[in-house]
Amino acid sequence: MLKDKFNAVWISHSSISDYLKCPRAYLLKHVYRDPKTHHKLMLMQPALALGQAVHRVIEDVSRLPVEERLRTPLGTRLNAVWETVAGKKGGFISQEEEMRFRSRAEDMLSRISSHPGPLTKKAIKIRRDLPYYWLSEEDNIMLCGKVDWLEYNDVTDSVKIIDFKTGKYDEDPDSLQLPIYYLLVTHCQTKAVSGAAYWYLDRDDAPIDMPLPDAAAAGKDILDAGKRIALARRLERFPCPKKDGCSACRPYESIVAGRAEFVGVSDYQDIYILALESSAETE
Question: Domains (ranges, CATH) in the chain?
Answer without folding.
Answer: 9-273 (3.90.320)
